[in-house]
Amino acid sequence: MTAKFVEGQELPGKLIAVEGLDGSGKSTQIHLVKRWLELEGYKVFFTEWNSSPLVRQSVKNGKREQLLTPTTFALIHCTDFADRYERQILPLLHAGYIVLADRYIFTAFARDAVRGCDRDWVKSLYSYAVHPHVTFFFDVPLEMALSRIMSGRAKLKHYEAGMDMGFSPDILQSFKTFQGKMREEYLRMTEEFGFIKIDVGRPPDQLQKEVRGHIQERIELERYKWKTSR
Q1: Domains, the chain
Q2: 79 exposed, middle or buried (CB, 10 Å; 0-12, 13-18, 19+)?
Q3: Mean pLDDT highest for which of 2-6, 131-135, 160-164?
């Protein structure tokens, strides 16, 4: 049974989420959207995955010691999300803000499914969450994602490469397998949840122009401008 979502359109604010593999450029694009909306005078709030002070250190410790099982991973990230949702996302949607989310519940749906968790169980963990008004999926070729990640640091991380799943003893091959399975989950969800698929590989300014166009088509932005007194 597919989990039901509260429709984000029922709230005064609007929720825009970006999803995609590591190295897809989604974070760059959502930060450009944030800057654009701020400069135009709109009420904007930004939130990102795995950033709650309540559980951030626990996640770091668990990853460092490589203690996280698929179920533990699912539950600890759900705790992180629930804390941010209750304290930040939902109140600001009620206050009439445009909330920008760098990864949303769909990250959990994809990662936890690849790690073997039951899809319906994972969805039930987030059944209280509003559905974004607009969700972008930045689709990136695996080799491009890997190249972008490796250009910024010396080596891949244990969990981002899916080494906990035993796909391969070689971390590069494990990364490709894990991220490839993640991409398959995202593509499956694209139709289910109505993602806007953005094909990566073009210059950032072209991607941003496309993203802004979709936002302007789907959201009456003028409603979210700060009101100035005369």
Answers
A1: 17-213 (3.40.50.300)
A2: middle
A3: 131-135
